[in-house]
Design a protein that fits this description.
119 residues, mainly alpha
Length: 119
């Protein structure tokens, strides 16, 4: 069994993989964050440990997101993982739509030279 320190380090070093969606990355980070929470009998301590893990999750997820989505999330400084994944997913979808639009126009058989300005 691995120590809590191992999982803290694993969470801190987590980075979004090349073909991993923001939601998939969040799910992976959440599993790691849950492993940092010690099992205690005192409900107050247990709640405090879970709250601390949630704060660490937000920070690690935000830091580990890559690309434009990651940059946008860091600029917005979300307080919850819900906000962070919403921002990252919105940016990812916008970039995907932009690539589709560019591909559509490039593949449409239109001239390769830009149109001239009519005065």
């Amino acid at each position: 069994m691995r120590t809590s320190q191992f999982h803290f380090t694993e969470l801190q070093q987590a980075r979004q993989r090349k073909n991993e969606s923001p939601k998939q990355f969040l799910d992976r980070c959440r599993i790691i964050a849950q492993r940092t929470v010690p099992c205690v009998t005192d409900a107050t301590f247990q709640r405090a440990f879970r709250e601390q893990a949630e704060r660490m999750l937000v920070a690690a997820y935000t830091a580990g997101l890559t690309g434009t989505g990651g940059r946008e999330v860091r600029l917005c400084a979300p307080e919850t993982t819900g906000e962070a994944v919403r921002i990252a997913t919105t940016v990812e979808q916008a970039e995907l739509q932009e690539r589709r639009n560019v591909s559509f126009y490039m593949d449409s058989g239109a001239e390769t030279t830009p149109p001239r300005k009519v005065q």
